[in-house]
Design brief:
By secondary structure, the protein is α+β, with helices and mostly antiparallel strands. The protein is elongated, with a radius of gyration of 17 Å. The chain starts with a helix and ends with a helix. A 4-stranded mixed beta sheet has the order 2-1-3-4, with helices on one face. The protein has 2 domains: 3-74, no CATH class; 86-162, Glutaredoxin (3-Layer(aba) Sandwich). It is built from 8 helices and 4 strands. Bound molecules: FE2/S2 (inorganic) cluster.
């Protein structure tokens, strides 16, 4: 997605520039070398990378917007579009797949009425499939924000999602 279509698709949130300064200056010393960590911190704050925040970051640390945009689109972990309050990552790596990961994936899609990569209408959940999150013996695994849910059966999914509403 180019810069103008990014503008078309995103409703920008109110940006707290003091908070951005805090991240860029206090946490990461205004240093270009810390770019990835700065982007991660901004994404933790907004759940995605708002264009206004990237524009501000660009002037603060002297990296052209196009370059920041390139970095943000290169890493799958970054999102340039608004995401839900809770990020549901379903693992579809081999170990999780053979233990029923696809069925859990379908169940989540049914319950939230969204497909992979989409955000629910109430903006509570974004669903993303991932390839192995490093705890294969617990498969099928779903990570919601920072919480891991392992050995998940399809009939447990609803109860777990309820905890995040
Ligand atoms: S394959 Fe799912 S955690 Fe490794």
């Amino acid at each position: 997605m180019n810069q103008s279509s990014l503008q078309d698709h995103c409703q920008e949130p109110d940006i707290d520039y003091r908070k951005l300064d805090d991240i860029i200056e206090n946490e990461f010393n205004n240093e270009k070398e810390n770019l990835i960590m700065i982007l991660q911190a901004i994404q933790r704050t907004y759940n995605y990378l708002p264009k206004q925040a990237l524009t501000y970051l660009s002037t603060k640390i002297g990296i052209p917007f196009s370059q920041l945009y390139g970095v943000a689109t290169f890493y799958k972990t970054f999102s340039l579009e608004p995401r839900g309050k809770n990020i549901v990552s379903i693992c579809l790596g081999t170990a999780c797949h053979v233990r029923g990961g696809a069925r859990v994936h379908e169940k989540i899609e049914d319950l939230l009425q969204i497909k992979d990569g989409e955000t629910s209408e109430d903006k509570l959940f974004t669903l993303e499939s991932v390839r192995c999150i490093g705890c294969c013996s617990l498969g099928p695994v779903v990570k919601i924000n920072e919480d891991m849910h392992g050995r998940l059966a399809t009939d447990e999914v609803s109860k777990i999602l309820e905890q995040y509403k």
